[in-house]
Design a protein that fits this description.
- There is one protein chain.
- With 293 residues, the protein is an all-alpha fold.
- It is 62% helix and 1% strand.
- The chain has helices at residues 9-16, 18-24, 35-48, 91-113, 117-141, 148-160, 166-183, 187-190, 193-213, 223-243, 249-263, 279-290; strands at residues 215-216, 219-220.
- Strands 1-2 form a two-stranded antiparallel ribbon.
- Helix 2 crosses helix 9 (193-213), helix 4 (91-113) packs antiparallel against helix 7 (166-183) and helix 9 (193-213) packs antiparallel against helix 12 (279-290).
- It is globular, with a radius of gyration of 18 Å.
- It starts with 8 loop residues before the first helix and ends with a helix.
């Protein structure tokens, strides 16, 4: 399959390396909190986003791997199964990637209820084709059985007989596989705000980029990207619930307020006639959460 040069925000995030993003938003004083590295990452993102183009105004970047861009997955719209040039290197990166899978499934479930099967295909296809390759090696490290076929089987069924009752069974099985992969992370990490909060910020940063890519000239032009970002924000809220009771009252209240405001920006799975908020407002709310780390 020919490699495309129009890279979706989620793919750009993976291609630039989950580790650098997680480090940049990790709590102050943790190992690897290098200002120079953060600056370098910012420069990479700025250069990759240097112009509109491609689908939904997405940045045109060449998919040629570099030492900085070899982490994570690559692929054009819809992804290319097995085309990932690298894999996540830590449990933190692994949680971000699986969180993005969960966000896609959140969107797919709503769209299944609406019988929007063409959109469901996109959201079921992306985890297996765009993201799975970035976690495949880490699954083995944590002793998790491979589960890409769960997405392949579900996608095939949705494409051929989307109203078959077996779709719900296959869907639940795919969700359970991702949940099981997340549960393989040591419990002491999943219960730690220092581990989970940077992953939440990583997921929200992808959501912000997807939301931005869904809008041109104040109008939604890419509903799939809007739906992606909605699913990511919803799952980020779920993750926050895992550790919120371990935060001090001020930090918990501040993050809860930002997350609650973010949720209002995606009122339904179908994009509203006009955006509820400008992409800059989404970025501002994500930054407010990051500053609390």
């Amino acid at each position: 399959m020919q490699r495309l040069t129009s890279v979706k925000p989620i793919e750009l995030f993976l291609a630039l390396g989950l580790a650098t993003t997680t480090i940049a938003c990790s709590p102050s004083g943790t190992p690897g909190n290098d200002p120079a590295a953060e600056t370098n990452t910012t420069e990479q993102v700025d250069s990759a986003e240097g112009g509109e183009g491609g689908e939904g105004g997405e940045a045109e970047v060449k998919a040629t791997p570099t030492p900085e861009s070899s982490e994570g997955g690559e692929g054009g719209e819809g992804g290319e199964s097995g085309s990932h040039s690298g894999s996540v290197q830590s449990d933190e990166d692994y949680l971000v990637s699986l969180g993005l899978m969960k966000g896609h499934l959140v969107a797919a479930k709503e769209l299944l209820a609406n019988k929007d099967y063409a959109a469901v295909e996109q959201h079921v296809g992306h985890p297996g084709e765009e993201i799975y390759g970035s976690v495949e090696d880490h699954l083995a490290t944590l002793g998790v059985e491979p589960f890409q076929n769960s997405f392949v089987e579900l996608l095939d069924l949705i494409k051929t007989t989307p109203e078959d009752p077996a779709v719900a069974e296959k869907f639940d099985a795919a969700v359970a596989k991702v949940d099981g992969a997340i549960a393989a992370i040591p419990a002491e990490k999943l219960e730690s705000p220092e581990f989970v909060l940077p992953a939440i910020v990583g997921i929200l940063k992808v959501a912000a980029k997807e939301y931005q890519a869904s809008i041109i000239d104040g109008k939604f032009v890419e509903p799939i990207e809007y739906q992606d970002s909605r699913g990511f924000v919803i799952y980020a809220n779920e993750l926050f619930g895992m550790v919120s009771d371990k935060l001090d009252a001020d930090t918990r209240s501040s993050i809860e307020a930002s997350l609650k405001q973010l949720l209002t920006i995606w009122p339904t799975i179908t994009p509203p006639a006009t955006p509820v908020a400008d992409p800059s407002e989404v970025l501002s709310l994500v930054s407010a959460i990051e500053l609390k780390l």
